[in-house]
Description:
alpha+beta; seven-stranded mixed β-sheet
Amino acid sequence: MSKYLVGIDEGTSGCKTCVFDLEGNILGMSYREYPCIYPKPGYVEQKVEDVLPQLFATCKDAIEKSQINADDIVAMGLSSISNSFCLLDENEEILHDFVVWNDIRVTSEQLDQLKEAFTPEEHYHQVGRPITTANASIAKLIWFRNHKPEVLEKTARICCTQDYYLKQFGADDYYVDDTSASRMAASSIHTHQWSKERLRLAGVEHVKFPEIIAEPGKIVGTIKEDISEKTGLPVGCKICLGAIDQNCSTFGGGLVESGSAVMVIGTFGSCFIASDQPAYDVNMKLVVKENHGMGNYTVEGMSSAAGSAFRWYRDVCCQKEISDAKKTGKDAYDLIVDGAKTSPIGSNGVFFLPYLQGVSAKQDYNARGTFLGMTLGSSHHDISRAVLEGICFEMLDIVDAERAAGIPLSSIRLVGGASKNDYWCQMFADIMQVPIEVVKSDEAGCLGAAMYAGIACGIYDSCLDAVRKVVSVVKVFAPDTEKAERYQNVFAAWKKAYVALKDRFY
């Protein structure tokens, strides 16, 4: 009898479910988009009622498309967005919608309170994250204490996305993986325990938090009949702990052993390098956290936008490509890239700073996205290429920070949306000047979640065993050394644009 695994990727702008065989081949897939809410400039929130029905719907649709016998599905795993949380009352009803990872409501008021309690060095070495206005839920909880104490007074439980949505599928309690917990910046990356001092600082020491699980994959429940009807998953299917989307994507890309590197270009962008020991950055700009289930750590530089900047450009500026895609059945993103190919390196002088939600690599959340250098002669395709180059340049900025921290990098595996387009992959290789590898599955997030589920059920002996059986490199894009100098010159000018705008406007 054949066996199958299901991986569900709960992302920022949409969710995806894939059905896999045990060799990692996709048999069925479904995707749905959903909105974020922006109550005020810089605020980003999400409603459960927008997300949960789509998680269920993609699951059911993917299983139907796979044309397998659903009873042969052994387990499901979840890949979830990180550094996002909601507040529940004593009846487990939502008091406040999810505050999403790229929300930047935190001000110097909350950061100063953190710095009064912990030195930046102490905080960084304990939780692996710098004290910044974004990507640190503990600072946002301090914001609630300062600005919405009446909500915190009613709060009985705080949930990350992993534990909340697994509970909606039928988990027997609230469990969270160590990577989701570390993104809260309220737990130790060494002990895998919540920090009482930080919870007390935020005024939530009395609140229930999910149990932190560091092991690779864990069965946390089984699918019951009511959820089976909504999802198509069979009654008794194992519900398994996954990890945050970045770790599921890097796991799906094969980031297991020390020295390997995976770059994820999704809504969020990042470059992860595995390390046997925590590789702290003396400048405290790179994030250090667990490589969930691998027994080692990752050092990470991140982009607040990346793929979401490309999506913004598609939605706002590329109505023709969207229309043509509907007529031809092609992907609008591919049509945009096809047009960008006609513009030369440097986009005929057009620059794009993809800082639509600040810039994580520089810890500057006041930065904004900008087009520069346009003239009456600039074409739509020049602007399209500038968007692609701008995203690549921000990722190069991250890679350069990792290199400056003394972390060697000889090649990068690229996963996420960018890996689906050969031209953009080659652009990454030419700009980074290292080989770019692409793995067999272009749905690494779902695959990583399914692999964690497979480990939990004993299908794979370990994370390394899962990678050896499932992950394989199918393409390698060698850098064109003749383009290196031209790209470096454009990159240098691109960096000056950020400095000039920062010094002039804020």
